[in-house]
Each structure stands twice: as structure tokens, then as C-alpha cells.
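Task 17 of the worksheet. Students: predict the tertiary structure of the chain below and write it out as C-alpha cells. Keep your answer in the requested format; marks are given for formatting as well as content.
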Amino acid sequence: MESTKEEKARAAKSSKAAACLRLRRSGIAAAFYSLTAFFTVVILAVSFNISSEEATAAQLGVGITIPPVKINQTAPVQNITPSVGGANISIILQMTYNGTGVQNITITLPSGWKKIVNVKINESGVIKNATLAGGQLTWEANHSALNATMIFDAAPPSLTSSVNFTNTTFFQKNLTVESDNSFTNVSVSVEVNSSYTFYTLYWYNGTQFVDKTVEFNLQVAGGLANFSGFSTSTVLFRLEGSISCTESWSCGAWSGSPSCGTRTCTDANHCGTTTSKPSESATCETGAPPAAGGGGGGGGSGGNATLAAAKKPGVVLPSEKKAAAEKTLEVSPAARELLKLFIKPGEFKKTSFSIKNSGGKRLGLNIRSEGLASFLTLATSYAELEPGDSTSIELLLLVDKQTQPGTYSGKIVVSTKETEELIVNVLLDVAPLKTLFDTLVNVNQKTKSIQPGDSVIADLAIFNLLGAGKFDVRVIYGIKDFTDKLITSRQQTIAVETRAGLAAVLELPKDLPPGQYYMFAVVQLEGTTVGVGSDTFNVVSPLKLGKAAPIGANILFILLLSFMVLTALLTFVSVAEIIRHHLPNKSFFGRQAATRPAARKTTEQKQPAAAKPRLPAVKPATAATTAKPASQITLEKKLKVLEQGFSEGLISTKTYIEDKTKIENELKKFKTG
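Model answer:
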């Protein structure tokens, strides 16, 4: 009975739920049908109130504007390629009529088109003239044609140009293309100097100039530069030409995994040569499956791909461990420490250095400059590198004619998403327009790597280029870091007839941080700078017995430590031997010695009581009485290590002289004793 009651209760509950569901569905349906009916009435009412001529506003509070003509402006037809300074361009726009009958139509001139002439309307082969006044077009339209075309002529774009810089090796020109109308696939032809061989085209995107040499198909021949394929109304370009070119290749991803198949490499400088072009194909070994959608990697062979595919998950190969421990960015040897350049006011120079991705994954490089902002421009601020690939970082240097002669410094910082930074210092000697005294600065090799508190020694050579005569010149020399911060400086006056030399000695502060620094020299004649020069050196951490110490210091530490360990070991053995012979029944730590086996005990009892073991005799060849004292040997080794470190440039002159004097004084005591 109870089961029957429960079943009836569940049935009643289910019936009630079904009724509620039907009620909700019927309510939703009713609301849907009501809204549909409402919008149907609104649409019919609006349609009824819309005129077939000039567009009017509908009633019922809904404003809808339907023009009598719909113009498709997204795909204008240009009968010829728009050429800067060429003939008028004929434009065709497709139209659709929305009304009925024949009546005059007036519309606003389509957006993007100004100063147009010869407007005609083609209605299915019937040509009608249109009147243009105050930006309004009027013509008699036959709506039964349904479709029509508007045809008119527009003035071509114009070109203005200005030369920013030019000399015997480089020129730079700005080109501005302007138009009152919206054209596509515009072409430009501009005269250039035939003495320049290599050209690059840049387009200004609103924030910076972007290389468009390939995209806009720059071609230079017969004294004319031609390019095309861009849209306008107003566009700014920069055209650069030079007499020399350095290839700068970058490559896309390999089609195979991880570094095989094919890829595409492009030269950022568009030299037209392939001397240093990387390989664009590599054979994939059997068992290396192609990567879907292209893979990473570059510059390697298919062997690495097979190894990577065959290894077990979670296993780190030795080569991978080594790669992870090393930096993944390498700079070309020429710029490993420094880019040093010589330039005169008003000159332009290009230079570059290469960055290689020696890691195992694709890297995005952010490139920025610090210092030299008024002189240095980077051709690019971002680059991507596949594993094993290299890219060239190009620097553009333009020094204004009003720039004061002197030595200027800065740095190029290349960083990755993983915050790894590679820094290349840049040193720029800006010479006078007329260099009257050639100035050379050579930091002595003994002080190329020194410690804080030591003195930098440099040879300054000054050559008189004026000819006969003797001149008193003032020489200002000093030390700066690569933020152009002055560390110390001096000045003195010397006489120069044909050539003069000066030994410049400057003491460094004791708290100077390690890093790269440079010594500069400025030669002045009657208050005017007539010569400049510079050279670099490194400040290393003070001599310490540790990881950061120079190689010479570590060698000395190892020798001293080895001698101390050997001395302690010999002492321990000697003491233990004495204790063992004089205390035969005691262990080294003073406890009772363990009982010997019975057989040995019997043998010992047979020995005479007076017989005692003797200490082993020391061989004369190693006896301390016939050899040099240990302290003398140690001092001689110290002196040898000190001289070796100084000859290799690891120890400063000041430290070498002080330590050598102390050691030699100690050694004299042994000779006199």
C-alpha cells in the first residue's frame, strides 16, 4: 500500500511539472508571436512611409534612411595604374537604384573623391551627364535600369621631395606623395644619382620608417628609381642610396623538424649579392617526421632532428644541458666588446654587427640604443631568430655639422623575453672638420686590464699636419665610462713640431665598479679643438681568492693550498708514527688497543724484553736538512706565479711591483742566513 501511495504521489508531481512546463512554453510562444506581429507592423508602416525619391524618415519613432542610390565604394575600378604626375585616372563606381520610375536624383559626392571632372552615368548602355556643384551630384535617373555605373576622371597624385643628406658615399631623400583622392596600386618614378649603387626604400607608418624595398618593388636603373603597389591619399617615403652594401640575412622557419627541409632567407639590405646567404635547404634524415605547419630551427642538419625524435620523454641530452648552461646570444667577433667609429661633422656612416641564436628555440630580440641619441639610429627595433641563425643589426650614424668635436659613447642593448641581455659598447670619435693634429691614444697593454685604485698608462702620439712650424698645444685627456660620465682628467701644454709624444698616467678611484672604460684625448690650438683620439681598457674586480679572481690569483691560491695540505698530511703521519711506537698498547685516540691474535702474541713473547721497535730512517734524498726550507720554496713559487700573471696582463703594474719587492726581501733573508 505504501508503495502504491508513493507512486501516486510521484505521478501527481510529474503531472503538475508537465503542466507548468506547457504553461511556460505557451507563454514564451505567445510573447514571440506578439513581438513578431509588432515588428511586422512596424516594418510595413516604415515601408509605406518611405518615399521612392529623396530618402525620408519613418514614423513610429524609428528613423531609417534609405538613399535612392547605393554606391559600392569598396571596389573602385581604375582603368590605368595611377602614376604620380601622370595623366588623369578614370574611375568607375558600381551603383544600385532603390526607387522606381524616372526622376532627378541628387546625392553627395562619394567619400574619398574630390576635384573630379567629366562625371557621367551609364544606365545599361545609356549615358547621362551629371551636374557637380557644391559637392552634390545631380542627374535624371531611370530606376527601371536597376543597376548603373558612375564614371569620372580624377587628378593624379603629386610628388614633392627634399634631400636630407648627401656626400660621396651616401644620400638620403624624403618623398611625399599627396592626392585629393583615394587611389590604389600607385606608382612613382623619381630621378636619382647614378653614382650610388645600392638603394633602400622606407615607408613612414606614423611612428617609424619601415623597409618596403621588396613589397613596393623598388627598381633603380638609368638614373630613375621606380616603385609601386601602395595606396594613398598622403604617404611619406624615404629613399636611401650608398656606394657599398653589407649583406644582412634573416631566414624563416624550416619546413621540416627541427632544422631540415626548406626555408626562405632575405637580405635586409637588398644588396643583390649572395656571398653570405645561409642555406635554404637541408636534407631530413629518415625517421625525422615533418613538423605540421612548419617547424622551428635553422642552420643545422637533419641529424639533430633524428636524435630529438628518438630520445625518451623527460631525458635531457648532454648537448641540451650544455646549451642551457651557456648564453643563447652570440655577437660577431668584430663587435664582441666594442664598435669604434671615426666620423666628421656632417658625415653619414652605416655599420652593423651580427647576432647569432646559439640556443635551441626561436628568440624574439628587442633592440634599443642608450646614449648617442642625437647621432645613432637603429634600422630595426625587433627581430626574430631561429636556432642556429644569425641576423645583422644595422646602425645609421649621422652627425650634424654643428656637432662639437670629441669622443662620444653609448651602447646597443639586445634583450630577449627571458630578460637575457647582450650589450655592445659604441665609441664615436667626432673629429674636427679640419683635422690639424692627428691624435692617437694607445693604452699600455700592461694596464689594459687593471684593478680599481691602480693607474692607467697610455701613450699619446700627436702629429702636426699643418706643415712647418712649432706649435704649443693644450692636451686634455681623461677617463669616462660608457654613459659619458667623467671619472678623472688632466691637461697639460706641450710643443709639437712634427711629432710629439706624451705618457698619460691617470689613477683610478678605489671604489670604481668593474667594467669597460675608455681614455680620451683632445688637442686644442688657441682654444679650438684640432684633434681627438681614444682607446679602451677594462677594470676588473680586486684580486681575490675566489671564483671572480683572475687566473693568476687562482693559480697562486691552488699552489698555496696544495702546499698547506701536503704539510699538514706529513705532520699528521709523523705524529701518528711517533705515538704508535712510543705508546704500543694505546690507540691513537688513547683507548686500550685491541687484543692481538694468539699466534702473534706467542711470537711477541719470544722476543727479548729490551728489544723495542725503531723509527724508520729518513732517506737523505728527501731529508729536510739537505733541501731548501719549505717557506723558501713557497716564496719562490709565489714569485714565479706573480711574474707569469704580470706577463699575461692579469696583475696590475702597481700590485706586481709591491708584491715582488716583498717576496724578494723575504728571500734575501735565506741567502744572508
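Marker's comment: The longest strand covers residues 170-191. Helices lie at 2-49, 302-310, 318-325, 551-582, 598-606, 630-647, 653-672.
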